[in-house]
Amino acid sequence: GKIKSSPPLPPVPTHLPPPGGHSSPANPNIPTLPKVLPPPPIGKEKKKKGVRKKWTVDLGKTLGDFDMTVCKAADISSEALENRLVKGISDIKKSSDGSSGVIFLKFENDDSSELVVLKSSSSLGQEWYGSALAHKLGMKCPRIRIISWRDRECFLIKKAIAALCGVDPRAAESLGGLGSMTNGHGGITWMKVHKILNRPHHGIMQFVNGKPLSSLLQKSSLTASSLRDIGRICAFDALTNNSDRCPFGDLFNNSGNAENVMLCGNNGDTKRSIRSSNTKTMHLMRVAVGIDNRVVPLSNRNQVQQYVNKIEKLVSQIKSKGRDASCFRNLLSFLQTTTVKASMMSDDGKSTLSESQACSELFGGFLELAQAAAKLEEKDFQSIATNMAKAVTADWEGVWRKAVDSIHPAFFATTARSFLPLLDVKPIQS
User: Fold this and answer.
1) What is the CA radius of gyration of the chain?
2) Using CA of residue 3, residue 7, residue 11, residue 12, what is the dihedral sign?
3) Phi (first) and psi of residue 136, to 5 degrees
4) Taking CA 157 as the corner, what is the angle to CA 152 and CA 160, rounded to the nearest 5 degrees?
5) Which of 252, 279, 363, 413 could bond 323 through an S-S bridge, CB–CB 3.0 to 4.6 Å?
6) What pLDDT, on a 0 to 100 scale, did the predictor assign at position 306?
């Protein structure tokens, strides 16, 4: 069918000034930010006439030296996060992966450490939409909500990070460099994060405590459940044109990015018996979670038609061959190569899955999400876009509006219709 233009979306709220401004906020509950004051001197100053003042700063200590694998996911609701921020952040780490600006905020409880993920990127809006759509279709992924630079949470985050890094609280809102340091122990960390903090919108995301698909070793095992999750992820990527994950069929001409699939143990370690009657400890990875769920909608009619033709060809093959379709065999080969010979087990860890059984799980997961997508109409995709427009309290120079306008719900409605032939297909029990 032809791509119909989507009805106009509600306007994105706009409040100025831009990030770093100091006029009265739109929300009366947000405290008015103080004017930036000059920082107090650090150490001794050389009093020479006509010479600019210089501050000496110790950059020797860097924050972020903690093990994230022992941390839990914190509640990302607004109220819970504000309460934690008022008490303060115990540590901070900037992700070394990618270039989208991901910061991990660590909070201490009486018996555990918890993390919140702060993300800022040019594709933040597309990721919000992808996350909302994934949850609607039953794919596992971290939840995300958006805060604007005018929100109280954003103000508290900047203040807490500044305090942790040793930045003068009076100058924190200006987000300057080392000139605002009063205690240099977090100087290196501050230089890494202060530009990220000076953006109009941030995503508050759930932390996923797991291992990337590419990090699994021989002592780890994919299970039937995690394989089914990966099948769902592949169907979602086909629907949304997300090529930055697992290669699937002829849709994407790339080698894949296994870093964007996280595997979690769910119930910890499980022991299983092996032929030698000894006991070998296996990490059963029962849950696969998709991260970086950015959608990539197409608007050019020729490009849309070319992509839809690829999906229809893939769907035809899956309908006729089921789990024996080459796309599932090739996907299984990708998983076996990526995970460095990690085994594939039943959910209870008592038996090894054959290749046919593993493909059955991949096929079942793909089929489940594809059938759910085929039942959606354009109004369902439009509804998510409408909610996206309302997801921020303020915009700056149309940044969020441009993200909303890039969604094109009609594209997703078209790709979803390509899954219609699969509605009468039944999964094969492994």
Assistant:
1) 25
2) negative
3) -65, -35
4) 120
5) 363
6) 96
Rounded to two decimals, what is the model's pTM? 0.82
Residue 220's φ and ψ, nearest 5 degrees, are -110, 155
Residue 380: half-sphere exposure toward Cβ, Cα within 13 Å:
16
Residue 184 has pLDDT above 60, yes or no: no
User: Containing H/E element for 260?
Assistant: none
| Cα–Cα nearest to 230, from 355, 348, 365 | 365
Sort strands 113-119 and 201-206 into parallel, antiparallel or unpaired. antiparallel
Between 430 and 372, whose confidence is greater? 372
Under the banding of pLDDT at 50, 70 and 90, the label for residue 97 is low
268 has pLDDT over 80 = no
Which residue is listed with tokens 């203040």?
Answer: 159
Q: What is the pLDDT of residues 271-307, one digit of tens each?
A: 333 332 333 556 788 999 999 999 999 999 999 999 9
Report how far apart the first and last C-alpha atoms of the chain are (Å, whole number).
36
List CB contacts of 96: < 8 A, sequence separation 6 or more: none
Q: What is the residue-averaged pLDDT of the chain?
A: 81
Half-sphere exposure of 210 (CA within 13 A, CB side): 29
Taking the C-alpha atoms of residue 283 and residue 207, their distance in angstroms, rounded to an integer, is 20
CA distances from 198 to 89, 101, 149, 195, 322 (A): 19, 11, 8, 5, 50
Say how many CA atoms lie within 13 Å of 166 toward its Cβ: 19
Distances (CA, A) of 314 to 68, 134, 137: 39, 21, 20
pLDDT for the residue 276: 29
Question: 408 near 298, Cβ under 8 Å?
Answer: yes
Biggest CA-to-CA distance, the chain: 85
Q: Which residues pair with 148 in a beta bridge?
A: 201
